[in-house]
Amino acid sequence: MLPTVAIQGFEGSFHQIAARHYFGPTTQTAPCATFGDVIRQVAEGQTDAAVMAIENSIAGSILPNYTLLRKSGLRVMGEVYLRIQQHLLALPGQQLTDIREVHSHPMALLQCTDFLVKQPTWRLVETEDTALSARRIREGHQTGIAAIAGQLAAELFDLDIIAPSIQTEKKNYTRFLVIAKPENALAVEQPNKASLYFHTSHAQGSLARVLVRIADLGINLSKLQSFPKPGSTWNYYFHADLEFDHPDQFEAALREMQPVTESVQVLGVYHKGTTH
């Protein structure tokens, strides 16, 4: 039986596409208004797992989500790299010449700037969600209005793609983490990636000592993100993503990190996602 997966956004969103990539095309999703709600749904057992965006190849890290994850007590059991392709959607029969307004999330509008500036008469309307913009066009039978959203929204709400792949950056990826309560996290055989938090002393060279020990084991540090440590001034803890060839390398890394860190919290050990 497939799990119920919490996602941020509405039906047809890129979060739902990512959930289907990981769990399968018939996965049931539970839309949430905020990322905090996503975490809460899983932590309270209302859903079996969640898919949560954590960074974008253009916009960078979604910093509040790292903090949500660290405080949640949930486990990372996988990741999805999703290529973000934005399409211009409208009711069947509509043409570009019929469009007067374009509705979408502000980030989607920004991602499609080069296309939109070529249509100076169009009114751009910011909304809370790409897929919701598409759904409103279908439910309201809105002619003359288009939405910027993904392929799944076009399929779910029976809209035509009147201009495909209008995003300015054609290789734009968002990384999503798959998370669950520790007792519900699926076991992974031969994992090759791990996410963790660690905290070092404020002494000179303390971070460098950690990084050298990781590198000496042949492990690739694919992500290092610093965060202010609450209750202290100019002290930081670090989120790290480690990529390795064999789980023994990661176990060795944990042993090597212990003497040069003040704390280490493993968030999850899983299979590295791929880009397509």
UniProtKB/TrEMBL annotation:
Q: What is its EC number?
A: 4.2.1.51
Q: Which GO terms describe its cellular component?
A: cytoplasm
Give the reaction(s) catalysed: prephenate + H(+) = 3-phenylpyruvate + CO2 + H2O
Domain spans labelled Prephenate dehydratase: 4-181
Which InterPro entries would you find in this protein's record? ACT-like_dom_sf, ACT_dom, Preph_deHydtase
Q: Which PANTHER family match?
A: PREPHENATE DEHYDRATASE P PROTEIN, PREPHENATE DEHYDRATASE-RELATED
Query: What is the protein's name according to its record?
Result: prephenate dehydratase
Classification of source organism? Bacteria, Pseudomonadati, Bacteroidota, Cytophagia, Cytophagales
